[in-house]
UniProtKB/TrEMBL annotation:
InterPro entries: Acyl-CoA_dehydrogenase (IPR050741), Acyl-CoA_Oxase/DH_mid-dom (IPR006091), Acyl-CoA_Oxase/DH_mid-dom_sf (IPR046373), AcylCo_DH-like_C (IPR036250), AcylCo_DH/oxidase_C (IPR009075), AcylCoA_DH/ox_N (IPR013786), AcylCoA_DH/ox_N_sf (IPR037069), AcylCoA_DH/oxidase_NM_dom_sf (IPR009100). Residues 238-335 form the Acyl-CoA oxidase/dehydrogenase middle domain. Belongs to the acyl-CoA dehydrogenase family. Residues 122-233 form the Acyl-CoA dehydrogenase/oxidase N-terminal domain. It holds the Pfam family Acyl-CoA_dh_1. It catalyses: a long-chain 2,3-saturated fatty acyl-CoA + oxidized [electron-transfer flavoprotein] + H(+) = a long-chain (2E)-enoyl-CoA + reduced [electron-transfer flavoprotein]; a medium-chain 2,3-saturated fatty acyl-CoA + oxidized [electron-transfer flavoprotein] + H(+) = a medium-chain (2E)-enoyl-CoA + reduced [electron-transfer flavoprotein]. Its EC number is 1.3.8.7, 1.3.8.8. The lineage of its organism: Bacteria, Pseudomonadati, Pseudomonadota, Gammaproteobacteria, Oceanospirillales. Residues 361-501 form the Acyl-CoA dehydrogenase/oxidase C-terminal domain. This is Acyl-coenzyme A dehydrogenase. Its cofactor is FAD. Residues 515-797 form the Acyl-CoA dehydrogenase C-terminal bacterial-type domain. SUPFAM superfamilies: Acyl-CoA dehydrogenase C-terminal domain-like, Acyl-CoA dehydrogenase NM domain-like. Pathway: Lipid metabolism; fatty acid beta-oxidation.
């Protein structure tokens, strides 16, 4: 009996010590005391075993002992197996900052650190811009007109964007810009997402490009000249990075700049001779100033002893002699300005380098530091805005579209995608807003930027597909009334640019995060590079303590024991506790993968992707909880919280299962499965009752729908009709209409109305004649049905409308001059 008790005490005690990462002295003390108790009280075998375990802990865990024999051996092995970090990789790793992503990597997230990032909301001028200028700009857009008729924004819209400073949202007020916060910039882009071409046109100059680069690295002369001109639209910028052979692998760009001297206006000028070919450059066809990334060489060593000076950035006026610019690409589904830029031996003065000579060779660092912010905002905000509009349109359409005498929103086959759309819009809105709030607090979230870009644009892909499904023929028939189809076809643009999602998911999220966000890996690599065994000992054995700690935390919490205390109330608390549990499991799996695969993990992209999926879903769920905790709740929002968190945690657990099943070392996979999920999976997909509740709320005039669509363009006072405003108006009147529908349809089913009254309008008129409904109700229904029919109607065109070359048009209904003689037509 004593033996069993000692074993239980040892296991429980060690789990507590491991969870708290109390270290070797605590474990040594526990094992030593229990071993002595065994020897003294007639349990000699277990006593001896416990004392042997204590001795092992002492020689491996106590610093003075392990440094004598163990650390040198581990350090030698580590030098051989540790991945080599190239200069470009190190630059990317050192870019940006680590905040909540680091907490999730630690396996013991401190929620108070996340909640400490208070949200001050928008300034008065920011909210006014959102309410007025953004609404007016959105109201000047019609997708069909922009995409098919003019392949451009209207001239009056271009003029308005420049006049109101849309291109200077990130430029400080002292330079004539708007000086917006990251949150305000994000919310403006969400509102402008009523039209994808408008969002891209405004978003790109405010993201990675000359404006941001000049702000951070430009010389005072460059800032004073360009920033005011960029802010008021006198200059339209573009940035040339990608090319035929340099897309996602931007560091491989083959474009060159050669330092040389040139006689300009009779004066010898030190400058660069550039040869470049760029593609897929947004705003290039109309840009007046071009940011350019290239590899700088100094073969004559005019600037110093180095010949290869590295990636460098320059700012070049459009009218520079020799630059070929102005042609357009044709992006799928959207005619935003995008095109190639070329040049051979284009000479520019040395002062065109952004930041001057001091920033020569710093281009890659400049780009990744800016990308850590810009990639958090532009495309994720566009995806979030698209999600909210698609949800608003779909909820409205499915409520007024009736089949089998009921709204299709009442059919479960439609409710399922509506609820999914609502959850993805809710998750996206919370994530992009709270991450922008981190930026406003000074963070530069490099790894979260990859999470947001890939995850939210993938949400957009699913959302738009769901929206197309529930709209049916309304959305597949293009024309001025179709508010969805062109945006749907343009979705691959968001999936592809600013780091293709395939690359981002498979290589960047975990690949960068494993080193950048891990509490100790970067320290271990630095110690290796410096050959500092003392620094390595400290980092490595702290790392070992973290591994044991995460194993204990994941296992005990997986058994439902020792749940973490979290600063959340109500339904959010359980989800926060489980994020902590899965965070511990993630940390353990990340270390197991790195330890078992070493540098080969880089090539195991599918495994890296699944580890990234776990991190991504935990990050998204955390942002949902932060938003829930900070925001005002509305009726029905708790259902959306439950659906969203269960959706994300289910996906996280699925990624865990796929990690366990695909680790090359099957024994490690089975051990991890037993430790991280000792009782199996905990989270099912969201239940149907949640889907039904959410679908009803987003397809009716409800507080939840209003909250989800807040700060979108929802007024019908623009130059173009606003489908969202029209659906909202119909939903306000829908309950009244539904009562009349039931009265009329019930009378028709009983035979009280003639069988020829097949249309709702006809039934209303006959019901009025028979006194079944009042004159007031009839007048109301005439107007209501007129508006419904307008929203259900699709466009049609002249037979020859789509043939660009009318000479190729075939008249399939032309009368033949003479019938064919069967005898002549016979083949011998």
């Amino acid at each position: 009996m004593l033996t069993l008790l000692l074993i239980i005490l040892a296991v429980v005690g060690l789990l507590i010590i491991m969870r708290r990462e109390a270290g070797a002295p605590a474990a040594l003390t526990l094992l030593g005391i229990l071993g002595l108790v065994g020897l003294l009280f007639d349990a000699a075998v277990i006593g001896v075993l416990l004392l042997i375990a204590a001795a092992v802990v002492a020689v491996t865990g106590l610093e003075t002992l392990r440094k004598q024999w163990l650390t040198p051996r581990i350090f030698k092995i580590f030098k051989k197996v540790a991945p080599k970090v190239s200069a470009t990789e190190r630059t990317a790793l050192e870019a940006g900052s680590v905040s909540w992503d680091g907490e999730l990597f630690s396996g013991k997230p401190q929620w108070n650190k996340l909640l400490a990032y208070k949200d001050e909301g928008l300034r008065e001028d920011e909210q006014a811009f959102l309410d007025n200028q953004c609404a007016k700009a959105a109201g000047m857009c019609n997708a069909w007109d922009i995409a098919q008729e003019r392949a451009d924004l209207p001239q009056q819209l271009w003029d308005y964007l420049k006049k109101e400073g849309f291109f200077g949202m990130i430029i400080p007020k002292e330079y004539g810009g708007l000086g917006f916060s990251a949150k305000a910039q994000s919310m403006a882009l969400q509102k402008l997402s009523a039209n994808e071409t408008l969002m891209v046109t405004v978003g790109v100059p405010n993201s990675l490009g000359p404006g941001e680069l000049l702000l951070k690295y430009g010389t005072e002369e460059q800032k004073d000249h360009y920033l005011p001109r960029l802010a008021d639209g006198r200059e339209i910028p573009c940035f040339g990075l990608t090319g035929p052979r340099a897309g996602s692998d931007a560091t491989s760009l083959p474009d060159t700049g050669i330092v040389c001297k040139e006689i300009i206006d009779g004066k010898e000028t030190l400058g660069l001779r550039l040869t470049f070919e760029k593609r897929w450059i947004t705003l290039a066809p109309i840009a007046t100033v071009v940011g350019l990334a290239f590899r700088l060489f100094d073969p004559e060593k005019l600037l110093g002893d180095e010949e290869d000076r590295g990636i460098t950035l320059a700012l070049i006026p459009r009218d520079t002699q020799g630059m070929d610019i102005g042609r357009r690409h044709h992006p799928i589904g959207s005619p935003f300005m995008n095109g190639p830029i070329k040049g051979v031996d284009v000479f520019v003065p040395l002062d065109t380098i952004i930041g001057g000579q001091e920033m020569i060779g710093q281009g890659w660092r400049m780009l990744v530091e800016c990308l850590s912010i810009g990639r958090c905002i532009t495309l994720p905000s566009g995806a979030t805005g698209t999600a909210r509009y698609a949800l608003g349109w779909s909820g409205g359409f499915t409520r007024v579209r009736r089949q089998f005498n009921v709204p299709v929103a009442e059919m479960e086959g439609v409710q399922e995608p509506l609820a999914r759309m609502a959850a993805m819009a809710y998750i996206s809105q919370a994530t992009v807003y709270q991450t922008a709030n981190l930026i406003d607090h000074g963070e530069k979230p490099a790894v979260p930027s990859a999470i947001l870009k890939s995850q939210l644009t993938e949400f957009q892909r699913v959302l738009l597909s769901d929206a197309m499904d529930v709209h049916g023929g309304k959305a597949v028939t293009l024309g001025p009334r179709n508010y969805l189809g062109i945006g749907y076809s343009a979705n691959p643009v968001a999936i592809t640019v600013e780091g293709a999602n395939i690359m981002t998911r498979n290589l960047m999220i975990f690949g960068q995060g494993a080193i950048r966000c891990h509490p100790y890996v970067l320290e271990e690599l630095a110690a290796k590079d410096a050959n500092d065994i003392n620094a390595f000992d400290k980092a490595f054995f702290s790392h070992a303590g973290l591994i044991f700690g995460n194993a204990a935390r994941a296992f005990t919490m997986g058994l439902g024991v020792g749940k973490e205390s979290v600063p959340f109330d109500g339904p959010a608390a359980a989800y926060a506790q489980d994020i902590a549990r899965l965070s511990a499991g993630f940390g353990l799996c990340a270390d197991a993968a790195m330890a078992s695969l070493g540098s080969a993990l880089k090539k195991r992209e599918m495994l890296s992707a699944r580890l990234g999926d776990v991190l991504s879903n935990l990050y998204l769920a955390s942002m949902v909880l932060k938003q829930w905790q900070a925001g005002e709740k509305v009726e029905g929002e708790d259902a959306l919280l439950h659906y969203s968190c269960r959706f994300l945690l289910h996906r996280a657990e699925q990624a865990f299962v796929e990690i366990f099943d695909n680790l090359p070392n099957r024994a490690i996979g089975r051990v991890l499965n037993a430790v991280v999920m000792p009782t199996g999976r905990r989270w099912d997909k969201p239940h149907d009752d949640l889907a039904r509740d959410i679908a009803k709320r987003v397809s009716t005039h409800s507080a939840l729908r209003t909250k989800l669509l807040s700060n979108t363009w929802d007024t019908d006072d623009g130059e173009q009709p606003n489908p969202l405003a029209r659906y909202n108006a119909l939903l306000v009147d829908y309950d009244r209409a539904e009562v009349i529908y039931r009265t009329v349809n019930k009378a028709y089913a009983k035979g009280e109305l003639p069988q020829t009254a097949l249309h709702p309008e006809a039934r209303v008129e006959v019901a009025f004649e028979k006194g079944l409904i009042s004159e007031e109700e009839t007048v109301f229904m005439r107007e209501f049905e007129k508006n419904v029919l307008e929203m259900l109607t699709v466009d049609d065109f002249a037979y020859d409308a789509f043939a660009k070359d009318k000479d190729t048009l075939i008249n399939h209904n032309a009368t033949q001059a003479a019938p064919i003689n069967p005898e002549e037509a016979r083949v011998e």
